[in-house]
Design goal:
single chain; mainly beta; Tachylectin-2, Chain A; Jelly Rolls; 2 domains; five-stranded antiparallel sheet; about 10% helix; globular; signal; glycosidase; Beta-xylosidase; Glyco_hydro_43; Glyco_hydro_beta-prop_sf
Length: about 525
């Protein structure tokens, strides 16, 4: 009797173990990694080319099951930059509107090109095409693509999410807003299925509008026009919804470059939005210009009472040269109605629950490749800026750092094509002066309200290129009162990797940086700084 009970007990423990293992495997399988600062591929290993678009949830025309469909533009130059990210291009050549599908928002399948070059330019005359979204128009049982086409808005229709979008009509925006074209635009679909065109004024972009999409006189078009903002010029206009509030988001007018992420909030889609005509900078986006992106679009995952907003930023690297990867996605957090941008290089998302967490290989350094700074710093041009974003430069000896100064040192260096074969992006940290100098450049890294810098062991890495003429040159770190350093003793005429291993982070805080004591005209460049937990 005791023997039989023992066997039953062992079998019970075995089944508990199997169930726990299956549960663990299932949880891990749903926890998918999103990695920024790299070029993305489909789950089949094909390059993803999708810029200036959006994600929409539609029923699969074959199975009737809802799936995510991601539409964007494939530009010819995006292929070239991906293959060799050492040069940038002055033009963007439209190839197609692409369509990708997914069931988890992370693993994507290339469906097909749904709007071709031949369809876009039936007369053979090429023009700008970009900034798009897709809406399901229930009255016609059609899917409508709204895309900027030259100086107007083109509407193209398809019978299914992955079907051919056929030219329907062009909308001249002049009667609506006083210009023929929109500035930037996206499509937002509300919980009730109604879709809206979100766009800015075509000239100057100092106004933002909301227009419902529908059918009039047998044509898919916009039905109304409500101005919800008039103030500083904005682009990258897009909308998301969180806890029944509408958020209008946008970026600065910086061309292809990154900027702060701005927002307004309203209880109603047509407003009023607050603060009135005064967009606020999203907390967390200031130290690296929203991880070197422009606002592209958002997607809100809704699971029971939980809502998770994913910020989907555009990085126009092929035209701006600012790093790797065209698509950079981040989870937002909220303090009540106030959004917070979590700048992460690697994080995990469970689409089934909306849960997310920081990945083990996340780089905690902000603006570590110095790509967020679009001008020579200090800059007297838009934006007027004295310090590198995310970094603090202290001049101990030498010429002061000042805007509008002929003797002020330049804090960043514009990498050459040869440099970019070894380091990422267009810029790097520049330490030099025309007189003898001593300078410290540092960044304090600590836990944010939503991303905890765990205590533990970390590695700090960078790449360096330097001349002779330094009395002392080092990379350093300090945490918990303990100093760590890597001394650079010799000249490095080509880019060289350096590392401080086994840094013990305590109390969720660490200071990293560089110290230079050099003679006049000696120089040092640093780039690609990372702090990653072991």
């Amino acid at each position: 009797m005791i023997k039989n009970n023992t066997i039953r007990l062992k079998n019970s423990f075995l089944w508990i173990g199997i169930l726990f293992l299956c549960s663990t495997i299932n949880t891990l399988a749903q926890n998918q990694n999103i990695k920024n600062d790299v070029f993305w591929d489909t789950k089949d290993g094909l390059p993803i080319y999708s810029q200036g678009g959006g994600i929409f949830k539609f029923k699969d025309s074959q199975t009737g099951i809802e799936k995510y469909y991601w539409y964007g533009v494939h530009y010819e130059e995006a292929e070239k930059y991906r293959k060799e990210p050492t040069v940038t291009y002055p033009h963007c050549t439209f190839k197609s509107v692409t369509c990708y599908s997914s069931t988890d928002l992370v693993n994507w399948t290339f469906e097909r090109d749904v709007f071709s070059e031949a369809t876009a330019f039936p007369d053979g005359k090429k023009t700008w095409i970009g900034r798009l979204g897709v809406a399901f128009v229930k009255e016609m049982n059609k899917y409508a693509l709204f895309v900027q086409h030259g100086s107007q808005v083109l509407v193209a229709l398809a019978d299914s999410p992955t079907g051919d979008f056929v030219w329907h009509q062009k909308i001249n925006m002049q009667p609506w807003i006083g210009t023929t074209n929109t500035g930037d635009q996206t499509v937002f679909t509300d919980d009730d299925g109604k879709s809206y065109l979100i766009y800015s004024y075509g000239k100057g972009r100092n106004k933002i509008y909301v227009s419902e999409i529908g059918v009039k006189d047998g044509k898919v078009t916009i039905l109304d026009c409500t101005k919800v903002f008039q103030g500083e010029s904005r682009e990258g206009n897009c909308m998301f919804k969180y806890k029944n509030k509408y958020y209008m988001a946008a970026s600065n007018i910086y061309g292809w470059d990154a900027s702060f992420a701005y927002y307004l909030v309203s209880d109603h889609i047509r407003g009023p939005y607050f603060p009135t005509n005064d967009m606020k900078i999203m907390d967390g986006s200031a130290e690296d210009y929203a991880h070197v992106t422009q606002t592209g679009f958002f997607y809100t995952i809704k699971r029971n009472d939980k809502e998770t907003v994913v910020y989907c930023g555009d990085r126009w690297a092929d035209f701006a040269g600012n790093g790797l990867g065209y698509n950079q996605w981040f989870p937002l957090s909220f303090d009540g109605a106030k959004p917070y941008f979590n700048s992460l290089s690697s994080w995990n998302l469970d689409e089934k629950t909306g849960d997310w967490n920081v990945a083990a290989d996340n780089n905690y350094v902000k603006n570590g490749s110095f790509e967020a700074d679009r001008n020579k710093i200090p800059s007297n041009f838009k934006p007027i800026q004295e310090q590198l974003l995310g970094w603090k430069t202290v001049v101990i000896k030498g010429n002061p750092i000042q805007v509008k100064s002929e003797i002020s040192p330049q804090l960043n260096y514009f990498n050459t094509e040869n440099d970019r074969k070894e380091v990422i992006g267009e810029k790097s940290l520049n330490i030099t002066d025309t007189v003898d100098f001593t300078r410290e450049i540092s960044q304090q890294i600590s836990s944010s309200p939503y991303v905890f810098l765990e205590d533990g062991v970390y590695n700090l890495t960078a790449k360096v290129k330097n001349s002779r003429g330094f009395v002392e040159l080092k990379m350093f770190a300090n945490s918990g009162g303990v100093d760590y350093k890597f001394s650079i003793e010799n000249e490095n005429p080509s880019w060289t990797s350096i590392r401080i291993s086994d840094i013990v982070v305590k109390d969720g805080k660490i200071t990293i940086g560089f110290f230079a004591n050099g003679t006049a005209n000696s120089f040092c460049l640093f780039d690609d700084v990372t702090l990653v937990k072991k």
